[in-house]
Design a protein that fits this description.
This protein is mostly beta strands and 376 residues long. The protein has 1 helix and 28 strands. Strands 3-2-1-28 form a 4-stranded antiparallel sheet, with no helix packed on it. Strands 4-5-6-7 form a 4-stranded antiparallel sheet, with no helix packed on it.
Length: 376
Amino acid sequence: MLRPTSRIASRAAIATTLTFLTLISGVRAGMAETFAYVGNADSNDISVFKLADTGEMIPVQTVAFTGVEKPGSSTPLAITPDHRLLIAGVRSQPFQAVSFAIDPKTGQLSHIGNGPLADSMANIATDRDGKVLFSASYGGNKVALNPLAANGVVAEPKQVIPTGLNAHAFLPSPDNRFAFATNLGSDQILAFAFDAAAGALTPSDPPAIKVAEKSGPRHFVFHPGGKFVYLIHELNGDVAAFSYEARSGAWTEIQRTSALPEGFAGKDSGQKPWAADIHITPDGRFLYASERTTSTLTAYKVDADSGTLTTTGSVPTEKQPRGFNIDPSGRYLAAVGELSNGMTVYAIDQASGALSKLQSYPTGKKPNWVEFLSLP
């Protein structure tokens, strides 16, 4: 039989336990939920998935492009920094950007409106303030800047700038003071000073960064620490590491390695490199690149001090992996295949960066772009 003091102690212990469980459930309820958005070119829509903590992808929604009749060659996507808008680029005439509002609780998309683009744009991205949309035209050899209206619809282009051959990616620097555009056919990266207040671009000095001939610079990503840039080359499969000087916007190459898997047969067998996409984990420890000829993903460890890369291996993935991305926690990678109409999710080993396949999922037709978003 419990003494009165024991009863009091027991009640206190129970109350403490209940309080703890309430706090834990509150924390769980308040945890961020993560969503994946897949752009599907041939079906002219976006597949929306919810990413479970286990890495499972749960289908949430399929959203068609309102006011778009013909499919384009790809479907670039961009999410604004405030997480309120998703913008999709349409590469069939009339060239336009389709804006969607993101529901802050469910991650679902609702159409807001369509705005004009200057050409068929292979790549779109907002500036760090979410006030303008940068875009690059591969076939039109140009880049453009469009203001974003208060309602989230893309306004008429404010600047359209001719480039070298095959502009492919156009992104702002981490501090929003510069913007850089790859020219795949001219083997260079154009550099611009960006006035965020005025929403205007002017050529930097020097105006271009040259890379190896016939390498085909395609996509690039800044290290989260802001001191390095990593660039994938479509035509020779190279991955280059650069140091980045934030004050001047200067790139200095420090290393060149490859996205091609071990044993790549090469031109003698009729195989040609066809590298595509590149992404880095949010903590900057691991980098990944996709290669379409072999349908593989290659992983690299990033040296935190020097920025150099150590290749850790390649894994097979969806057929023709034009696009992939990493979730904001850095625990999962999702890759899509243009020729498989599917998406595969991998767990990222937090010690080595190695990829372990979890599960594959059907998407729309010709998926080519993945964006992740965590909502509180």
